[in-house]
Amino acid sequence: MYKFVDMHIHSTFSWDSEMEVDRIVEMAKENQISFIGLAEHLDFHSQHEKSYMFYNYDDCFQKIQSIKKSFPQISMGIEAGEPYLYKDAYEKYLENKKFDFILGSVHWIDDVSPVEDRYFYKYSTVEDAYKKYFEEEFKLVNYGNFDIVAHLTLVHRNGRKFESGFSYNKYKKEIDDILKIIIKKNIALEINCSGLRMAAGDFIPDEEIIKAYLNLGGNLITVGSDSHRYNQLFYGLNNAYELFNRLKIDEVVIYKERKPIKIKIKEDIKNEIKS
Ligand SMILES: [Zn+2]
Ligand SMILES: [Zn+2]
Fold it and tell me: What pLDDT is attached to residue 274?
Protein backbone atom coordinates (compact mmCIF):
# COMPACT_ATOMS: atom_id res chain seq x y z
CA MET A 1 0.00 0.00 0.00
CA TYR A 2 1.36 3.38 -0.97
CA LYS A 3 1.17 6.51 1.10
CA PHE A 4 -0.29 8.66 -1.64
CA VAL A 5 0.17 12.39 -1.63
CA ASP A 6 -1.36 14.86 -4.07
CA MET A 7 0.37 18.23 -4.01
CA HIS A 8 -1.45 19.90 -6.89
CA ILE A 9 -5.16 20.37 -6.23
CA HIS A 10 -7.24 23.41 -7.14
CA SER A 11 -10.23 24.20 -4.94
CA THR A 12 -12.86 26.91 -5.43
CA PHE A 13 -10.24 29.38 -4.17
CA SER A 14 -8.92 29.08 -7.73
CA TRP A 15 -11.04 30.84 -10.34
CA ASP A 16 -11.29 27.78 -12.58
CA SER A 17 -12.08 24.97 -10.12
CA GLU A 18 -15.41 23.50 -9.07
CA MET A 19 -14.10 21.59 -6.05
CA GLU A 20 -15.05 22.65 -2.52
CA VAL A 21 -12.31 22.21 0.09
CA ASP A 22 -14.59 20.22 2.41
CA ARG A 23 -15.43 17.73 -0.31
CA ILE A 24 -11.77 17.41 -1.33
CA VAL A 25 -10.92 16.49 2.25
CA GLU A 26 -13.77 13.95 2.40
CA MET A 27 -12.56 12.37 -0.82
CA ALA A 28 -8.98 12.26 0.49
CA LYS A 29 -10.21 10.31 3.50
CA GLU A 30 -12.32 7.98 1.35
CA ASN A 31 -9.37 7.29 -0.96
CA GLN A 32 -6.74 6.87 1.78
CA ILE A 33 -4.71 9.81 0.55
CA SER A 34 -2.11 10.59 3.21
CA PHE A 35 -1.45 14.22 2.40
CA ILE A 36 -2.93 16.89 0.14
CA GLY A 37 -1.65 20.23 -1.05
CA LEU A 38 -3.98 22.96 -2.28
CA ALA A 39 -2.18 24.91 -4.99
CA GLU A 40 -4.46 27.82 -5.87
CA HIS A 41 -3.87 29.92 -8.96
CA LEU A 42 -2.09 33.21 -8.53
CA ASP A 43 -1.50 34.78 -11.93
CA PHE A 44 -0.36 38.28 -12.77
CA HIS A 45 -0.67 38.13 -16.54
CA SER A 46 -3.08 40.76 -17.85
CA GLN A 47 -5.27 38.12 -19.43
CA HIS A 48 -5.30 36.36 -16.10
CA GLU A 49 -6.21 39.39 -14.05
CA LYS A 50 -9.31 37.58 -12.95
CA SER A 51 -7.37 34.89 -11.19
CA TYR A 52 -5.13 37.36 -9.36
CA MET A 53 -8.18 39.27 -8.30
CA PHE A 54 -10.06 36.09 -7.54
CA TYR A 55 -7.76 34.44 -4.99
CA ASN A 56 -8.64 35.41 -1.44
CA TYR A 57 -5.70 34.72 0.85
CA ASP A 58 -7.44 35.53 4.14
CA ASP A 59 -10.49 33.36 3.45
CA CYS A 60 -8.31 30.51 2.24
CA PHE A 61 -6.05 30.75 5.30
CA GLN A 62 -9.01 30.68 7.68
CA LYS A 63 -10.60 27.77 5.86
CA ILE A 64 -7.46 25.67 6.00
CA GLN A 65 -6.83 26.53 9.65
CA SER A 66 -10.27 25.21 10.51
CA ILE A 67 -9.80 22.07 8.36
CA LYS A 68 -6.47 21.36 10.07
CA LYS A 69 -8.22 20.83 13.41
CA SER A 70 -9.66 17.56 12.11
CA PHE A 71 -7.44 16.89 9.11
CA PRO A 72 -3.90 18.14 9.65
CA GLN A 73 -2.49 16.43 6.56
CA ILE A 74 -3.10 19.48 4.37
CA SER A 75 -0.81 22.23 3.08
CA MET A 76 -1.77 25.63 1.79
CA GLY A 77 -0.06 26.57 -1.42
CA ILE A 78 -0.31 28.67 -4.53
CA GLU A 79 0.60 28.09 -8.13
CA ALA A 80 2.29 31.28 -9.24
CA GLY A 81 2.17 32.00 -12.98
CA GLU A 82 5.31 33.59 -14.48
CA PRO A 83 6.59 35.13 -11.23
CA TYR A 84 9.86 35.96 -13.05
CA LEU A 85 7.95 38.42 -15.26
CA TYR A 86 6.07 40.09 -12.41
CA LYS A 87 8.76 40.06 -9.74
CA ASP A 88 7.71 43.24 -7.96
CA ALA A 89 4.03 42.33 -7.76
CA TYR A 90 4.85 38.75 -6.81
CA GLU A 91 7.34 39.58 -4.08
CA LYS A 92 5.06 42.25 -2.68
CA TYR A 93 2.16 39.80 -2.66
CA LEU A 94 4.16 37.30 -0.59
CA GLU A 95 4.93 39.82 2.14
CA ASN A 96 3.33 38.92 5.47
CA LYS A 97 1.66 35.82 4.09
CA LYS A 98 2.27 32.28 5.24
CA PHE A 99 2.25 29.67 2.54
CA ASP A 100 3.34 26.09 2.98
CA PHE A 101 4.55 25.85 -0.60
CA ILE A 102 4.63 27.65 -3.91
CA LEU A 103 4.52 26.05 -7.33
CA GLY A 104 6.19 27.99 -10.13
CA SER A 105 4.54 27.75 -13.55
CA VAL A 106 4.69 29.07 -17.08
CA HIS A 107 1.08 29.41 -18.26
CA TRP A 108 1.46 32.25 -20.71
CA ILE A 109 4.08 33.08 -23.31
CA ASP A 110 3.48 36.58 -24.61
CA ASP A 111 -0.24 36.66 -25.36
CA VAL A 112 -1.02 32.97 -25.63
CA SER A 113 -0.88 29.84 -23.50
CA PRO A 114 1.28 26.92 -24.67
CA VAL A 115 -1.65 24.57 -24.03
CA GLU A 116 -3.62 26.16 -26.88
CA ASP A 117 -3.42 25.15 -30.55
CA ARG A 118 -2.89 28.76 -31.60
CA TYR A 119 0.41 28.84 -29.62
CA PHE A 120 1.94 26.43 -32.14
CA TYR A 121 0.69 28.43 -35.14
CA LYS A 122 2.74 31.43 -34.00
CA TYR A 123 6.07 29.77 -34.74
CA SER A 124 7.49 28.73 -38.09
CA THR A 125 8.32 25.25 -36.81
CA VAL A 126 7.03 23.16 -33.96
CA GLU A 127 10.62 22.84 -32.70
CA ASP A 128 10.76 26.64 -32.40
CA ALA A 129 7.54 26.55 -30.35
CA TYR A 130 9.03 23.96 -27.99
CA LYS A 131 12.36 25.80 -27.73
CA LYS A 132 10.63 29.08 -26.93
CA TYR A 133 8.67 27.29 -24.22
CA PHE A 134 11.88 25.87 -22.70
CA GLU A 135 13.48 29.32 -22.80
CA GLU A 136 10.64 30.62 -20.65
CA GLU A 137 10.89 27.66 -18.27
CA PHE A 138 14.59 28.41 -17.95
CA LYS A 139 13.82 32.02 -17.00
CA LEU A 140 11.29 30.79 -14.46
CA VAL A 141 13.67 28.45 -12.63
CA ASN A 142 16.58 30.85 -12.96
CA TYR A 143 14.52 33.43 -11.08
CA GLY A 144 13.42 30.80 -8.54
CA ASN A 145 11.76 32.11 -5.36
CA PHE A 146 9.34 29.20 -5.31
CA ASP A 147 9.52 25.59 -4.10
CA ILE A 148 8.34 23.26 -6.86
CA VAL A 149 8.52 23.57 -10.64
CA ALA A 150 5.06 22.59 -11.88
CA HIS A 151 4.39 20.64 -15.06
CA LEU A 152 7.77 21.11 -16.72
CA THR A 153 7.05 20.25 -20.40
CA LEU A 154 3.49 21.61 -20.18
CA VAL A 155 3.95 22.53 -23.85
CA HIS A 156 3.71 18.83 -24.67
CA ARG A 157 0.37 18.33 -22.90
CA ASN A 158 -1.43 19.50 -26.02
CA GLY A 159 1.65 19.82 -28.24
CA ARG A 160 1.79 16.11 -28.84
CA LYS A 161 -0.78 16.73 -31.57
CA PHE A 162 1.88 18.76 -33.41
CA GLU A 163 5.14 17.19 -32.20
CA SER A 164 4.80 13.43 -32.14
CA GLY A 165 8.58 13.10 -32.19
CA PHE A 166 9.06 14.78 -28.81
CA SER A 167 11.66 13.12 -26.63
CA TYR A 168 14.08 14.06 -23.89
CA ASN A 169 16.98 13.47 -26.27
CA LYS A 170 15.60 15.85 -28.86
CA TYR A 171 15.56 18.73 -26.36
CA LYS A 172 18.28 17.39 -24.05
CA LYS A 173 20.34 20.58 -23.93
CA GLU A 174 17.35 22.78 -23.09
CA ILE A 175 15.93 20.34 -20.53
CA ASP A 176 19.27 19.58 -18.84
CA ASP A 177 19.92 23.30 -18.38
CA ILE A 178 16.61 23.58 -16.50
CA LEU A 179 17.16 20.43 -14.43
CA LYS A 180 20.65 21.54 -13.37
CA ILE A 181 19.31 24.84 -12.10
CA ILE A 182 16.47 23.32 -10.08
CA ILE A 183 18.87 20.85 -8.48
CA LYS A 184 21.26 23.65 -7.59
CA LYS A 185 18.45 25.76 -6.13
CA ASN A 186 16.71 22.90 -4.27
CA ILE A 187 13.53 23.38 -6.29
CA ALA A 188 11.51 20.15 -6.39
CA LEU A 189 10.46 18.50 -9.64
CA GLU A 190 6.72 17.89 -9.88
CA ILE A 191 5.41 14.80 -11.62
CA ASN A 192 2.15 16.18 -12.94
CA CYS A 193 -0.50 13.61 -13.80
CA SER A 194 -2.72 15.89 -15.91
CA GLY A 195 -0.99 14.76 -19.10
CA LEU A 196 -2.37 11.26 -18.58
CA ARG A 197 -5.87 12.53 -19.26
CA MET A 198 -4.93 14.82 -22.17
CA ALA A 199 -3.26 14.63 -25.58
CA ALA A 200 0.20 13.89 -24.14
CA GLY A 201 -1.08 10.63 -22.63
CA ASP A 202 1.89 10.68 -20.29
CA PHE A 203 3.30 12.25 -17.15
CA ILE A 204 4.50 15.84 -17.35
CA PRO A 205 7.46 15.52 -17.44
CA ASP A 206 7.78 11.99 -18.75
CA GLU A 207 9.85 9.06 -17.49
CA GLU A 208 12.95 9.85 -19.54
CA ILE A 209 13.12 13.35 -18.10
CA ILE A 210 12.58 12.07 -14.56
CA LYS A 211 15.46 9.64 -15.10
CA ALA A 212 17.64 12.49 -16.37
CA TYR A 213 16.79 14.48 -13.25
CA LEU A 214 17.81 11.55 -11.04
CA ASN A 215 21.01 10.99 -13.02
CA LEU A 216 21.95 14.62 -12.57
CA GLY A 217 21.61 14.15 -8.81
CA GLY A 218 18.08 15.44 -8.18
CA ASN A 219 16.31 14.03 -5.14
CA LEU A 220 13.26 16.26 -4.53
CA ILE A 221 10.29 14.76 -6.32
CA THR A 222 6.67 15.61 -5.75
CA VAL A 223 3.47 14.54 -7.45
CA GLY A 224 0.08 16.03 -8.20
CA SER A 225 -3.11 15.45 -10.15
CA ASP A 226 -3.51 19.15 -11.11
CA SER A 227 -7.23 18.58 -10.66
CA HIS A 228 -10.00 21.14 -11.04
CA ARG A 229 -12.98 18.73 -11.22
CA TYR A 230 -14.04 15.95 -8.89
CA ASN A 231 -13.51 13.32 -11.57
CA GLN A 232 -9.87 14.49 -11.90
CA LEU A 233 -9.06 14.46 -8.19
CA PHE A 234 -6.16 12.05 -7.44
CA TYR A 235 -6.27 10.96 -11.10
CA GLY A 236 -3.08 9.20 -12.15
CA LEU A 237 -1.55 8.86 -8.68
CA ASN A 238 -1.63 5.07 -8.95
CA ASN A 239 0.30 5.22 -12.20
CA ALA A 240 2.78 7.69 -10.72
CA TYR A 241 3.50 5.49 -7.73
CA GLU A 242 4.00 2.46 -9.96
CA LEU A 243 6.45 4.59 -11.93
CA PHE A 244 8.27 5.58 -8.73
CA ASN A 245 8.51 1.92 -7.81
CA ARG A 246 10.01 1.07 -11.18
CA LEU A 247 12.52 3.90 -10.97
CA LYS A 248 13.34 3.00 -7.34
CA ILE A 249 12.16 6.37 -6.12
CA ASP A 250 11.14 5.62 -2.53
CA GLU A 251 10.41 9.14 -1.28
CA VAL A 252 8.28 12.08 -2.33
CA VAL A 253 8.34 15.53 -0.78
CA ILE A 254 5.56 17.49 0.80
CA TYR A 255 5.97 21.02 2.13
CA LYS A 256 5.12 22.75 5.35
CA GLU A 257 6.02 26.39 5.95
CA ARG A 258 8.06 26.32 2.73
CA LYS A 259 10.24 23.48 3.98
CA PRO A 260 10.45 20.12 2.21
CA ILE A 261 9.63 16.99 4.19
CA LYS A 262 10.50 13.66 2.62
CA ILE A 263 7.86 10.95 2.90
CA LYS A 264 8.61 7.29 2.32
CA ILE A 265 6.05 6.15 -0.21
CA LYS A 266 5.50 2.68 1.23
CA GLU A 267 3.45 2.13 4.37
CA ASP A 268 5.74 -0.53 5.70
CA ILE A 269 8.53 1.97 6.09
CA LYS A 270 8.41 3.84 9.40
CA ASN A 271 8.68 7.60 9.52
CA GLU A 272 5.05 8.59 9.73
CA ILE A 273 4.09 12.09 8.66
CA LYS A 274 4.38 14.39 11.63
CA SER A 275 1.18 16.31 11.73
ZN1 LIG B 1 -0.52 25.04 -14.07
ZN1 LIG C 1 -2.55 23.74 -11.64
Answer: 46
